[in-house]
């Protein structure tokens, strides 16, 4: 393939996260509103241009009270910081269809370099003749690196909310004409 513009098909894509809770379990959630600017040859992402934005107000952990708390000044503070942004700065190939994508993550007024493992899942044509490409990505950030430090000590030791947030993306993208 050649380098082309790709649009995220949000109805076939997902941005998810998980964080430890009470030191014994994981709470998972998703963001429903996100977009990306992708210019790439999916068969070789090393020269791709990738930026990604997540509307933090679209957080969904299947608990309305928790979602409201995440949107508050204790966490995301969406009134001041409504989005999480990512801008790729380097992409290196690790193996066939396997890449490390490093870039600037902007969250809660802080920008830091983070790396994510990305897998190119392949391309296909849908029943209407459109070319689609699939990508999976995983990574983790420390929420304290972004000033997200709300927590509570547990009487049994440890803290209520873990510092590491695991991030997963399943992206289906549509090649633009």
In short:
By secondary structure, the protein is mostly beta strands. The chain has 1 helix and 11 strands.
Task: Tell me what the structure shows.
By secondary structure, this protein is mainly beta. The chain is built from one helix and eleven strands, in the order ββββββαβββββ. The chain has an eight-stranded antiparallel β-barrel. A hairpin with a 2-residue loop joins strand 7 and strand 8. It is elongated, with a radius of gyration of 17 Å. The chain starts with a strand and ends with a strand. The mean pLDDT is 96.
Write the layout of secondary structure elements.
Layout: E1 4-8, E2 14-21, E3 25-31, E4 34-41, E5 44-55, E6 59-60, H1 64-71, E7 83-95, E8 98-107, E9 110-125, E10 131-142, E11 161-175
Beta-strand fraction estimate: over 45%
Structural class: mainly beta
Oligomer: single chain
**Low-pLDDT stretches:** none
Number of β-strand runs: 11
Give the CA-based shape.
elongated
Query: What's the helix count?
Result: 1
Q: What's the end-to-end separation, in Å?
A: 14 Å
Which terms would index this structure?
mainly beta; 177 residues; eight-stranded antiparallel β-barrel; single chain
């Amino acid at each position: 393939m050649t380098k082309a513009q790709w649009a995220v098909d949000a109805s076939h894509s997902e941005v998810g996260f998980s964080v430890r809770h009470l030191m014994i379990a994981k709470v998972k959630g998703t963001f429903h509103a996100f977009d990306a600017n992708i210019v790439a040859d999916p068969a070789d992402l090393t020269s791709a241009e990738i930026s990604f934005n997540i509307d933090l107000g679209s957080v969904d952990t299947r608990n309305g009270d928790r979602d409201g708390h995440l949107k508050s000044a204790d966490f995301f503070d969406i009134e001041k910081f409504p989005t999480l942004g990512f801008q790729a700065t380097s992409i290196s190939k690790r193996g066939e269809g396997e890449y490390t994508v490093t870039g600037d993550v902007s969250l809660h007024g802080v920008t830091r370099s983070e790396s994510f493992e990305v897998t190119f899942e392949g391309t296909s044509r849908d029943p209407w003749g459109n070319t689609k490409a699939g990508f999976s990505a995983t990574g983790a950030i420390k929420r304290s690196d972004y000033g997200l430090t709300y927590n509570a000590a547990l009487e049994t030791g440890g803290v209520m909310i873990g510092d590491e947030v695991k991030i997963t993306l399943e992206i289906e993208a549509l090649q633009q004409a």
